[in-house]
Design a protein that fits this description.
123 residues; alpha+beta; three-stranded antiparallel beta sheet; flat; binds zinc ion
């Protein structure tokens, strides 16, 4: 995990930009790499191919916060002040979050799959 020293989202973007989409063989673009969540020591990113829309998935990346343990978490450079206020104080993802997601999908009813983008099968 030495590549991700300092918890840099940019380093993670650069990492995934060296990977190729299994669906269309295009390289992943930085715009397709979205930071979902940042916790102290953990970044959650979603990687999607911008060429064909095929989702690679969600990656939870452990980061090393060197000599930063007692300070504010390092926030991504592209977060606005509002983003930081909105997201920085969030509790870590818990089982409740997973449960809420299931309840959300349940509410969609039997035809929920029709709302998903048509990007082929998810492998
Ligand atoms: Zn693709």
């Amino acid at each position: 995990m030495g590549k991700f020293q300092g918890g840099s989202f940019q380093a993670i973007q650069e990492y995934f930009q060296q990977k190729f989409c299994r669906n269309c063989d295009c390289q992943f673009a930085s715009e397709g790499i979205q930071l979902l969540r940042q916790e102290p020591g953990v970044l959650v990113v979603r990687v999607t191919c911008k060429a064909c829309g095929h989702p690679l998935g969600v990656a939870i990346v452990g980061t090393v916060l060197e000599s930063n343990n007692n300070k504010e978490p390092v926030l991504p450079a592209d977060w606005s002040r509002k983003d930081a206020e909105r997201l920085a104080g969030k509790a870590p993802i818990s089982y409740d979050d997973v449960l809420e997601a299931h309840q959300f999908f349940d509410q969609l009813g039997a035809n929920w799959a029709q709302y998903l983008p048509k990007t082929g099968k998810i492998s």
